[in-house]
């Protein structure tokens, strides 16, 4: 009986691979992922290649579903799909590119909402996933820098020099190409702040 149980147990991962393939054919991807995870837990070396292939198949199907429904899908649902696909097949260039593009799109939305800090984090994540999108990253960083510079000017005009200095330091951090300009502007604002404080003390 013990040998029979061991034999039955050893067949489970193979059965789950078969179920996974059936699930994929039926487009039941959540169940396919579940069956594949069960098979993977047994750590059978001869199944590693088959499991990797099926993960890649499911990931591609998830991305295809996104691309076919991109105009009607909520952003949160799209993010869930690409995250799931990326977790299954993180080395697949097609999956990496689409997952990266989603975070670029998220950054775009965050910039429009004025949340530059979150947008930069999203951009950093996007380019870490797929460095091939670096040009979009650079363009968006420049756009954010320009928008933040507008806030610097507003703060300067309001006499809020500390706020302006903090913004300039952040611009310098995210866009080193502007360091020479931001450094001069920061030095100028610090001098104005010092003059303002001196004038206040001498009153």
Extended strand count:
0
| Radius of gyration over all CA atoms, rounded | 26 Å
Average residue pLDDT: 91
Q: Please report the number of helical segments.
A: 9
The chain-level structural class is: mainly alpha
Can you walk through the features of this model?
- This protein is mostly helical and 203 residues long.
- It is built from nine helices and no strands.
- The protein is elongated, with a radius of gyration of 26 Å.
- 28% of the residues are buried.
- Mean pLDDT is 91; it is low at 1-9.
Write the layout of secondary structure elements.
Layout: H1 2-25, H2 29-40, H3 48-68, H4 75-88, H5 93-112, H6 116-129, H7 134-157, H8 161-174, H9 179-201
Helix pairs in contact: 1-2, 1-3, 2-3, 3-4, 4-5, 5-6, 5-7, 6-7, 7-8, 8-9
Q: What descriptive keywords fit this protein?
A:
single chain, mainly alpha, disordered N terminus
Give a brief description.
By secondary structure, the protein is an all-alpha fold.
